[in-house]
Amino acid sequence: MTTSTTYSDSTPAQPTNSASRVATASFIGTAIEFYDFYVYATAAALVIGPVFFPQTSGTAQMLSAFLTFGIAFLARPLGSALFGHFGDRIGRKSTLVASLLLMGVCTTLIGVLPGYDSIGAWAPILLCVLRFGQGLGLGGEWGGAALLATENAPKGKRAWFGMFPQLGPSVGFLAANGLFLTLAMLLNDEQFRSWGWRIPFLLSAVLVMVGLYVRLKLHETPVFANAMAREERVKIPLIELFSQYWLPVLLGAGAMVVCYALFYISTVFSLSYGVATLGYSRETFLGLLCFAVLFMAAATPLSALASDRFGRKPVLIIGGVLAILSGFLMEPLLTQGSTWGVALFLCIELFLMGVTFAPMGALLPELFPTHVRYTGASAAYNLGGIVGASAAPFFAQKLVAMGGLSYVGGYVSGAAVLSLIAVLCLKGGCQKFCVRA
User: Fold this and answer.
1) Do the beta carbons of residue 165 and residue 29 sit within 8 Å?
2) Residues of the domain holding 300
3) Residue 260's closest CA among 397, 70, 81?
4) Do 95 and 375 meet the contact criterion of CB atoms below 8 Å apart?
5) Number of folded domains in the chain?
6) pLDDT (tens digit, 9 = 90+) per residue, 26-42?
7) What is residue 169's three-state secondary structure?
8) Does residue 7 sit within a domain?
9) What number of other Cβ atoms are within 10 A of residue 101's Cβ?
10) Mean of the per-residue pLDDT values for the chain?
11) In this structure, what CATH number is given to the domain that contains residue 201?
12) Helix 237-244 and helix 58-89, axial crossing angle in degrees, nearest 10
C-alpha cells in the first residue's frame, strides 16, 4: 500500500503564498460557495415549494422543496470525483477557480428561473438541473480549499490553517440568512414570494467575481508542486483512491455525518418547523439563526486550536459525545413555548457543529497522500453529506409527523453515534494512513 506523503518534505518548487493570502483565499471561496448553498437552503424552507410546486398541498410543497434541496448532496460526490481528478492531476488553484465559477453560475441562474406559473413543469425540472450543478461545484470546493490551507501550513499549525475554510460556512450562512432577514423586514409576503427571494441568488454573481479575483492571485501549493516535480501523479486518482484508500474514505465520511446532521436539522428543518408549526415569523426565526451561528463561528477557532494542541481525535470524541446528548434536548427546548428555549437549542447545536467541523479541515486531508489527496478529502467530505444532510430535512419532516420532535432528536443522536464510531476506528484501523501533524 502506498505510504502517505508528508506536507512539507522538500523545498518548494515555486514561489510560496503568504499566510494572509492563503487564509483569505481559502476563507473567501468557501464563504461564497456556502453562501450560494445556504441561500437555496433558506429559500427551500420559505418559498421554493409555493413557487415551483404550487399544484400540490402545503405539506407536499415542503417535501418537494426538501427533495430538491437533497439533489445537490447526491451531486456533491460526483463533483468531488470530477474536480478531485483535475485537482490531483492539474493543480489545486485552477480547479478551485472552476468549482467557484460553476457554483456561481448555477446560483445566479436560479435567481432568474421562471416559476411554475410561467413555464409549467419545466420550472421544477430546470430547478433540479441547476441545483445539481450547485452540488457539483460545492463538491469540488471544500476539498480544494482545505488543501490550499493545509498544504501551505507550517508543521504543528495545520488545523489552525485548516480552520479558515471552516469559517466560510459560518460567514456564508450569516450572509445568506441576514439578507433573507432584511428582505423579510422590508417586503410583504406577496413581494417576497414574487421577486424578493431572487435577490440573494442574483447577488452571487458579484461575490463570485470577488472570489475569482482573489484565487487567481494565488500560486500553486508547494506540496503539490513538489509532488509533480517528482512525477507523483496517477492517471485516474479515483481508481487509485478506492483501490488503496477505501477505508480512510469510509471512516472520514462517517466522521463527517454528525456535522451535517447538526447543521441542517438545526437550520433548514428547524426554520421550516419554527415558521410553519411553532408560529414564529420568518424574520424572528431567521434572526435567531443569525444569532446562533455566531456560536458556530466562535467554536471553530477554539476547536482548531485544541485540535493542534491535543489532537484531532480527542476533540472529535468530546464533540461527538456532546452531540449525542444534544439530541435529547430538541423536544423540550423547542416545545416549551419559550423563544429563549428555541434560541438555546439552536446555539447548542451550532456550537457543536463548529466543534466537530473545525478539525475536519486538517483531519480529512491528512488521511491521504498528495497524489490522491484532493479526490480523497473531497470524497470523504461529500459522501458524509449523503448520510448526514441530503435527506435530513425530508426525513425530519416525516419523523416529526410519525412521533414528534423526539424522533428528530433521535436522528441527531444516531448520526452522532455513527460519527463517534468512525472517529474511534481511526485510531487503529487507519492510523498508518495519516500524515501526522
Assistant:
1) yes
2) 19-433
3) 70
4) no
5) 1
6) 888 788 877 887 888 88
7) helix
8) no
9) 16
10) 83
11) 1.20.1250.20
12) 100
